[in-house]
Design goal:
This protein has about 325 residues and is of the alpha/beta class. It has one domain: Alpha/Beta hydrolase fold, catalytic domain (Rossmann fold), CATH 3.40.50.1820. It has 11 helices and 8 strands. The chain has an 8-stranded mixed sheet with strand order 1-2-4-3-5-6-7-8, sandwiched between helices. β7, α9 and β8 form a beta-alpha-beta unit. The termini are far apart. The N terminus is likely disordered.
């Protein structure tokens, strides 16, 4: 059922049970107990009320803030954060409701997340930053650039949500099928199947995404995470950006995998990924589109060297 949510990182949201290969993992008491591959800092946002978990690496006059996708978390960028941190000031965050950030209820609107990014940048004393967003994080990055252009130096959009159109009926369908209970009680088999749909060829290094998601299902704040996922889906469809892509004025680097199984939606909008990618890129005047062969939706993890190399060239 959830498999057709084209802008989601579905591997994170579709299971509750534990299939035999993963028995004995042990449950987390709270999601803050997740093990990250880098030291985590926390900062409270007074206006928003959430405490945001983030990691920081590197230095220089160019800052990149990495924003994960639906159902995901900061370690999704682990193969990019550390490498690019050798050359730039890099920050990777958990959005409110995700990972190690606090999970008070919120609207999930793209404008809400944009406000979080704005406040986060201000609290860290930063000025203008590059936003790197994956999937839903791409739509958040676009929205931030539209609402708060004064803080955005450039965009790095990785298979961004927001380039695909949905009718009113399709949007209502998403609202109807996405429920916190549905997120919470999806089967273990579904997560493994849907993880595969995010990749052209699944790297062995993504195993932690399965085990982390299995272990967090009994965490005391897991219900808050499930709520955030549902609100985020509604937020994407309630605040589309496709009509405003022409208003983006900053340099923009756009990535799509040629073998993306999620964009466009194979059930609601069957078609070619390249058509969606080219249309969106054509509306952003100062943009470069990189189509990556033999690559799926989780591009920055599957084709790490291509992504890191193109980002470094872009930032020159």
């Amino acid at each position: 059922m959830m498999r057709i949510v084209s802008f989601a990182i579905l591997a994170f949201i579709m299971f509750s049970g534990c299939s035999s290969p993963y028995k004995g993992l042990g449950d987390l008491s709270k999601m803050d107990d997740l093990q990250y591959p880098f030291p985590v800092k926390k900062i409270h946002l007074p206006n928003d009320g959430h405490t945001i978990a983030y990691a920081e690496l590197g230095s220089g006059d160019k800052t990149i803030i990495f924003i994960h996708g639906l159902g995901s978390y900061a370690p999704a960028w682990s193969r990019n954060f550390e490498e690019l941190g050798k050359h730039y000031h890099c920050i990777v965050i958990d959005l409110p409701g995700y990972g190690k950030s606090t999970k008070e209820p919120h609207s999930g609107l793209m404008s809400y997340y944009a406000g979080v990014i704005k406040e986060f940048v201000g609290e860290l004393g930063l000025k203008r930053v590059y936003l790197a967003g994956h999937s839903m994080g791409g739509q958040i990055s676009i929205t931030t650039a539209l609402i708060y252009p004064d803080i955005v130096e450039g965009l790095i959009l990785v298979v961004p949500a927001g380039f695909e159109r949905f009718t009113a009926g399709q949007k209502q369908w998403f609202r109807d099928v996405m429920t916190p209970k549905g997120v919470k009680f999806t089967t273990a088999e579904a997560i493994q199947n849907n993880l595969a749909t995010n990749f052209y060829r699944v790297p062995k290094e993504v195993e932690f995404m399965i085990t982390d998601r299995l272990r967090m299902r009994k965490a005391i704040d897991f219900d808050g995470y499930c709520y955030a996922v549902v609100q985020s889906v509604k937020g994407m469809i309630d605040e589309p950006v496709i009509a405003y892509l022409g208003d983006i004025k900053v340099p923009t680097l756009i990535f799509f995998g040629e073998n993306d199984n999620l964009i466009p939606n194979r059930y609601l909008n069957p078609g070619r990924t390249i058509d969606i990618a080219q249309y969106g890129a054509s509306k952003i005047s100062n943009s470069k589109l990189v189509m990556v062969p033999k690559c799926g939706h989780f591009l920055m993890f599957e084709k790490t060297e291509v992504f890191n190399s193109e980002v470094r060239e872009f930032l020159k």
